[in-house]
Specification:
Blueprint (H helix, E strand, L loop, with lengths): L14 E4 L22 H7 L9 H11 L6 E4 L10 H11 L2 E6 L6 H9 L2 E7 L5 H8 L4 H14 L4 E7 L7 H11 L3 E6 L6 H6 L6 H19 L3 E3 L8 H6 L10 E4 L4 E3 L3 H4 L6 E2 L5 H7 L1 H9 L6 H5 L3 H4 L4 H8 L7 H8 L17
Parallel strand pairs: 1-2, 1-8, 2-3, 3-4, 4-5, 5-6, 6-7
Antiparallel strand pairs: 8-9, 9-10
Helix pairs in contact: 2-3, 7-9
């Protein structure tokens, strides 16, 4: 069968979000994929010694080869903790050979100097590292393992020494909102390239944090975003971005796209066992899995997978609630469809943050169809 070419009915498969393992060496209470705990690489190898259920570098190479004709240009390694796999650098070699760049999301506690150098040689575009506080005691307590702060900072230093572009990602909640400026100051001292804030979300373990009142209200998050991006970024000469839906950013930020957004119509998510969906949501919502590679070919999954077909047919036209009324829905695409599905079992449900912000009166009428244009 001839390769399926992207066209009007099949968007380009620009990115694969790959989850090399479902395991993690930390116990973070906000994690939306709820990974099993695995303290180190030795424990990980032992747990899989009876026969690996996760994808090998060779199978990964086959998958990348099938995705390249569909437009694959970038892979994001995420997890779980990717560096639990001692063969992770073999996956990087696959991408180097295929001329595909990659990013890695990691807690950096397991990154060796050799790992960092290999990442650089293989074309890593960015390493995004989780760090939630300038205070070791808080970070260790939040991440659930003593000594995490020290090992994370050491990992960041190794990544920087290898010449990599490093971003710190802070998970923001009520317990550490006062740490926002100290954490940005720390990022400046360490010498990373940028700082990103991810408010905790109601999915996976994060649902428990919301039920305990640990989540900040939309209005407070909007205030913190404005202060961080306009004041703290200038004060510390550090690029700072907040992960909030487009409607809550000013138009200069939207035009620059510095905060990023989910290009869901051009992304495929692949779990370590080969399960294919829109992202890691396939672990928590198996009904969104369209098949398992290599039992299903990449091109068949991309062209015929039910969840991909539904998104292409309905986004953004059939978005519901406040998201359906937003003038930016053609770009935002409902922000995080995975989280909408987790909460409502409906891919077109409005994003929770936008609905709560509307209830607080924080949605600008100028950003809604039929609303006044003043003060947009």
């Amino acid at each position: 069968m001839a390769p399926i070419k992207p066209g009007a009915d099949v968007p380009r498969l620009s990115s694969i979000y790959f989850y090399p393992t479902q395991d993690c060496n930390l116990r973070c209470p906000h994690c939306w994929v709820d990974p099993p705990f695995m303290p180190d690489r030795k424990a990980y190898e032992l747990s899989h010694s009876g026969g690996r259920s996760e994808m090998s570098p060779a199978t990964f190479g086959m998958m990348v080869g099938e995705a390249r004709p569909l437009g694959l240009a970038r892979v994001k390694f995420t997890g779980g903790e990717p560096f639990l796999r001692k063969d992770l650098t073999e996956f990087m070699e696959v991408l180097k050979s295929a001329a595909v760049t990659f990013d890695i999301e990691t807690n950096a506690t397991l990154v060796t100097a050799a790992d960092a150098r290999k990442m650089k040689r293989c074309g890593c575009f960015q390493a995004a590292v989780s760090l939630d506080s300038s205070t070791p005691a808080f970070h260790d307590r939040f991440r659930g393992v003593k000594g995490t702060f020290r090992r994370t900072v050491r990992g960041i230093e190794r990544l920087l020494a290898a010449g990599l572009n490093v971003q710190i990602i802070m998970s923001l909640m009520s317990d550490n909102e006062g740490e926002l400026e100290p954490a940005i100051a720390l990022a400046t001292r360490i010498g990373v390239n940028s700082f990103k804030v991810n408010p905790i979300t109601p999915g996976g373990r994060g649902l428990g944090m919301f039920s305990k009142g640990k989540a900040l209200k939309p209005g407070r998050l909007i205030e913190l975003m404005s202060h961080a991006e306009k004041v703290l970024a200038a004060r510390y000469r550090m690029p700072v971005s907040f992960s909030l839906p487009l409607s809550f950013h000013d138009f200069d930020s939207i035009k620059s796209d510095r905060f990023g957004r989910c290009h869901i119509l051009n992304i495929m998510g692949v779990l370590g066992d080969g399960s294919i969906s829109i992202c890691g949501i396939g672990k928590e919502e198996p009904d969104l899995v369209v098949g398992r590679y290599p039992e299903i070919a990449v091109e068949k999954a991309w062209r015929e997978g039910k969840v991909f077909l539904e998104l292409r047919e309905k986004l953004p036209r059939m978005l519901e609630g406040v998201c359906g009324k937003c003038i930016l829905k053609g770009v935002c695409l409902g922000y995080c469809r995975a989280n909408a599905y987790t909460l409502e079992k409906n891919l077109m449900a409005p994003y929770w943050f936008c609905e709560e912000a509307k209830g607080e009166g924080r949605v600008r009428e100028s950003r809604l169809y039929g609303g006044t244009r003043a003060g947009s």
